[in-house]
Amino acid sequence: MVSPILYSFRRCPYAMRARLALAISGTRYELREVRLADKPAAMLLASPKGTVPVLQLASGAVIDESLDIMRRVLEVSDPENWLARDDRALIAINDGAFKRNLDRYKYPDRHDCDPLVHRQRGLDFLREIDARLAATGQLCGPDRGFADAAIMPFIRQFAATDREWFGAQPLPHLKTWLAWHLASDLFQTIMVRVPPWSP
Question: In this structure, are residues 177 and 40 in contact, taking their beta carbons and an 8 Å threshold?
Fold first, then answer.
């Protein structure tokens, strides 16, 4: 039986969340690690927009949005009931305003902006997450779920931009949550290094 193919980039947060859902669902797939500077023709043929992740199903159908990939594989198999712990509004803020601020904080030269302004705006979102986690432990209750997997890779990237500064911020619940996810077997599994794919 032909397995689905995932075009991915290890450090991309969008690709990370797709791999988290694929892993927790137990979906078998062929991982094709992509060099973003040298994208394979097969990936561009499947999805001309040229961004990861791209999931090519055994049927030939292509899903090239990370949240769509997550929902598709979890609708087939969802052993931890992740879909019950979704928060589309919170994920929309993460993918919208927070991601915009993250990009401008991490790559100020690319965007010709003051990174500290965008770091502060990002911190406002982290404070909201911290307050929410204080009550529940995870974003939608005591157990990890869809919202956690969808948002955590972006907060990881924000935290890693200036680890010393992040470490000094009073975000105890968020830090505990982030550390727990990063140390989990699930995350370790999806972050294994593989050589770039070549046809």
Answer: no
Q: What is the DSSP letter of 10?
A: T
3-class state of residue 170 by DSSP: coil
Beta-bridged to residue 55, according to DSSP, are 6, 63
Burial profile 54-65: b = 16 or more Cβ within 10 angstroms, e = fewer: bbbeeeeeebbb
Q: What are the distances in angstroms from CA 160 to CA 84, 106, 154?
A: 30, 9, 10
Contacts of 165 (CB under 8 A, 6+ apart): 119
What torsion, rounded to 10 degrees, do the Cα atoms 122, 70, 146, 80 define?
A: -150
78 with 20: CB under 8 angstroms? no
Query: Could you report the per-residue pLDDT of 120-136, keeping only the tens digit for each?
Result: 999 999 999 999 999 99
The pTM for the full model equals 0.97
Outline where 94-193 has alpha helix (H).
Answer: 99-106, 108-111, 115-136, 146-161, 163-167, 172-183, 185-190
Q: Among 75, 69, 70, which residue's Cα sits nearest to residue 146?
A: 70
Q: Measure the CA–CA gap between 29 and 9, rounded to whole angstroms.
A: 15
Measured over the CA atoms of residue 18, residue 100, residue 188 and residue 140, the dihedral's sign is negative
pLDDT digits 0-9 by tens, 24-76? 999 999 999 999 999 999 999 999 999 999 999 999 999 999 999 999 999 99
CA 118 to CA 162: how far, in whole Å? 13
Contact predicate 22/79, CB 8 Å: no
